[in-house]
């Protein structure tokens, strides 16, 4: 079975030194946290994830969920583990204290999510979807709806889902057919239709499940402007908060899928099921996007989390497995062969994973801090700026990180050779599980198109230029430091390619809008690589400062510098070929006829 060591020291580095979150005095609630509190919380989550969640990962994958007599049963041990999860209060960390939450910043919660995802992605999805449902109701629900549902969702006593997809309508929600009509009782509606691919759609972990369902009212206009969002409970809730009769909905089937077998992915049927509006009529997509954007950050964290545990185990294997001899000579003469860690290609795969994981972790922390600033900053203008930056980078944390996280898991599997293909080692499960992250919550191709079309061109790259100003600030602050030149050079090169790619797309898309789709994926990769180069440059600057101050952890900070330099030489240089790809092939892609494929 795979092992896991929570990267707690790296969390401390990102929170305490790189982002300096304890100096964010203008953010509401940040004065109530300190490093000791953060360390204690993350250590507690690490213990639960390692001791309770990890042992269930492989067995949950083998057993999967079962649909028996119309009810879904989670794998053995999940129900007991979830009960302990609720009792420990792990679902309450970042929720509103008014409804029983602890009110912690997202920048701390994001790393708790990483550890849960690393150790058992399928299990972590149950509370993950619940938090998304909480967010949508918290932002858009009426006071009555909040009082009815939020406390139970915060504690995890009840879980939540999001019901968007229909068999004929995936990303194009304008096509959905699920109907809502007024029902007997004030503010109640009867929901009828079928939804597919519903994660955590039914299970035996909690006594009630609150489904957030997109549906159309009879007077709804055509397209996405006619979609409303409804909260539809598995069991109706009485006025005193107790559970009433079963609602007229059910999981009619479980999807037979590639991975995340421990999570119940259901076909859900609603047959006049009673629900209540979340937000205003015909404004459901706006409310659902609150949940989806929360989910997109969580999905990006999945890309990082599974990549991290895969890397850890590949590194252990590479140090232990002996095969062949180093090309420059014998490295372990006392052994029959050298550990495979001596081989260049094994080192390439492992360092590529390490550089990606640590850079992506820093980027996730930055994204979460922007979200905290958007919600908590006492200066409305700064809150607005942070909100725009978080929106710009949502396709990066979801699309780029899951793309490259999946590739990292494949590399980790490759380190194991033939053993990586065998279930007992865990690598093939990691590859299967994380593959879905590139698909759900908007496929990565959709994320890339959203980035280019909505986040770059719609505001004439104003937000991108705002972020570019932060990049230039880092360059200017470190330009005079001779030791920073390798990192500055890499960041300048990649940001230069990003600027040229942006100009190319903006210029050519005016004449041929189809170029947006043809170039968007490569563009998302350029921005993602450049964003991590920005984080690694800041990391290098922070590490050098610690070494100059005489730290007692010289090995840790020297390791950061070595990894940063590798990132610039291996990762950052990829932006050049991606830019050339955009310039050379985007126009050609738009000109192919159907018969050419």
TrEMBL record:
Its cofactor is FAD. It comes from the Bacteria. Keywords: FAD, Flavoprotein, Oxidoreductase. Residues 79-157 form the Acyl-CoA dehydrogenase/oxidase N-terminal domain. It catalyses: 3-(methylsulfanyl)propanoyl-CoA + oxidized [electron-transfer flavoprotein] + H(+) = 3-(methylsulfanyl)acryloyl-CoA + reduced [electron-transfer flavoprotein]. Its EC number is 1.3.99.41. Residues 162-271 form the Acyl-CoA oxidase/dehydrogenase middle domain. Involved in the assimilation of dimethylsulphoniopropionate (DMSP), an important compound in the fixation of carbon in marine phytoplankton, by mediating the conversion of 3-(methylthio)propanoyl-CoA (MMPA-CoA) to 3-(methylthio)acryloyl-CoA (MTA-CoA). This is 3-methylmercaptopropionyl-CoA dehydrogenase. It comes from Shewanella hanedai (Alteromonas hanedai).
């Amino acid at each position: 079975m795979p092992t896991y060591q929570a990267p707690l020291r790296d969390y401390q580095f990102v929170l305490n030194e790189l982002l300096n979150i304890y100096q964010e005095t203008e953010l509401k609630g940040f004065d109530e946290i300190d490093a000791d509190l953060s360390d204690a919380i993350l250590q507690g989550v690490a213990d639960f994830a390692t001791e309770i969640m990890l042992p269930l990962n492989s067995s949950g994958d083998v057993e999967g969920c079962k649909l028996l007599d119309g009810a879904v049963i989670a794998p053995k041990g999940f129900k007991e583990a979830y009960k302990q999860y609720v009792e420990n209060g792990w679902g309450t960390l970042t929720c509103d204290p008014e409804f029983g939450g602890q009110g912690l910043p997202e920048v701390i919660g994001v790393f708790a999510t990483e550890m849960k995802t690393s150790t058992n992605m399928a299990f972590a999805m149950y509370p993950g979807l619940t938090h998304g449902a909480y967010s949508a109701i918290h932002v858009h629900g009426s006071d009555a709806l909040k009082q009815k549902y939020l406390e139970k969702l915060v504690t995890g006593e009840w879980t939540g889902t999001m019901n968007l997809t229909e068999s004929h309508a995936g990303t194009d929600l304008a096509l959905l057919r699920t109907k809502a009509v007024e029902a007997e009782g004030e503010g109640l509606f009867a929901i009828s239709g079928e939804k597919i691919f519903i994660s955590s759609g039914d299970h035996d972990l909690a006594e009630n499940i609150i489904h957030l369902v997109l549906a159309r009212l009879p007077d709804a206009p055509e397209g996405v402007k006619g979609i409303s969002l409804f909260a539809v409970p598995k069991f109706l809730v009485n006025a005193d908060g107790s559970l009433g009769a079963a609602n007229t909905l059910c999981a009619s089937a479980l999807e037979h899928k590639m991975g995340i077998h421990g999570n119940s992915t259901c076909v859900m049927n609603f047959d006049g099921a009673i629900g209540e509006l979340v937000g205003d009529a015909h404004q459901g997509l706006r409310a659902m996007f609150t949940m989806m954007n929360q989910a997109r950050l969580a999905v990006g964290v999945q890309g990082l989390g599974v990549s991290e545990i895969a890397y850890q185990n590949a590194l252990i294997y590479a140090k232990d497995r002996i095969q062949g001899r180093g090309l420059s000579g014998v490295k372990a003469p006392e052994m029959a062969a050298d550990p495979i860690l001596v081989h260049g290609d094994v080192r390439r795969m492992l360092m590529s994973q390490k550089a990606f994981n640590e850079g992506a972790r820093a980027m996730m922390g930055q994204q979460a801090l922007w979200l905290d600033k958007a919600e908590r900053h006492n200066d409305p203008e700064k809150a607005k700026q942070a909100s725009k930056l978080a929106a710009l980078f949502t396709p990066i944390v979801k699309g780029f990180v899951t793309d490259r996280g999946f590739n990292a898991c494949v590399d980790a599997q490759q380190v194991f050779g033939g053993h990586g293909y065998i279930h007992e080692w865990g690598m093939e499960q990691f590859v299967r599980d994380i593959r879905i992250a590139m698909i759900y919550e908007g496929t990565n191709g959709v994320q890339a198109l959203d980035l280019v079309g909505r986040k770059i061109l719609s505001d004439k790259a104003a937000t991108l230029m705002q972020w570019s100003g932060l990049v230039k600030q880092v360059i200017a602050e470190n330009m005079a430091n001779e030791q920073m030149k390798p990192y500055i050079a890499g960041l300048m090169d990649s940001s230069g390619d990003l600027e040229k790619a942006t100009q190319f797309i903006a210029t050519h898309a005016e004449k041929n809008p189809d170029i947006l789709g043809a170039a968007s994926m490569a563009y998302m990769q350029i921005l993602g690589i450049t964003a991590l180069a920005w984080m690694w440059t800041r990391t290098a600057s922070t590490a050098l400062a610690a070494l100059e101050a005489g730290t007692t952890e010289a090995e840790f900070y020297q390791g950061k510098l070595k990894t940063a330099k590798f990132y610039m030489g291996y990762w950052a240089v990829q932006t050049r070929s991606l830019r050339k790809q955009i310039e050379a092939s985007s126009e050609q892609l738009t000109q192919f006829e159907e018969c050419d494929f």
